[in-house]
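<derive_structure_tokens>
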Amino acid sequence: MLLRALILLLACMNLGVAAWWMFHRDAQAHPLPAIEPGIASLTLYSESDRAKLPVPEAAASATPALTADAVCQSIGPFETSVALRRAMDALLPKVERIQFREVEATALRGYRVFLPAAADREQALATARSLSAKGIADYYVVTAGDQTNTVSLGIFRELENATKRRDQVVKLGYNAVVEPRTEPVKQWWIDLAATPGFDWKTVLGKADLKSQQAPCG
């Protein structure tokens, strides 16, 4: 009896599903009425007529027009971004156009006094021992890098002090050399356009800067 009841139940369920698929109708979408009479429906900006309006000429150009007698020049170099920003803030209200650019440069970091590289490490050590015997204490033998087997006699900030050290060692019979120490650094320049007679020095004060004429294009 239980088996017959289950079979009858399944048959009725199948008939019900088949009837639903045969006679059901998809629901029709109806637009929602406006909250109040006279209120327009929502329209995307991209679908509106405003989106088709031409861009104003002033907004289309990022570079402002210059007066016919504008004078253009570059000012720099600025060694730090902080100094650059201060100068930009001071100059901005007084010029017609201003921008900055970053450049790669070489900075002088002092001077190195040394003896040229020996043929090998043993010769370099022998030279160092002879220096010590003649009273030269501040030295070391370079054992790696581009200066291998040279004998360093000191690093100096001022050229005058480096030259004195070299002359001291030369008098003892050694071929001492002075060489500038440089390294790559970033610098910044300000390019501006202003009215004739504009003096940037009155704005920036006694800064260690220089200026040069630049094209306005």
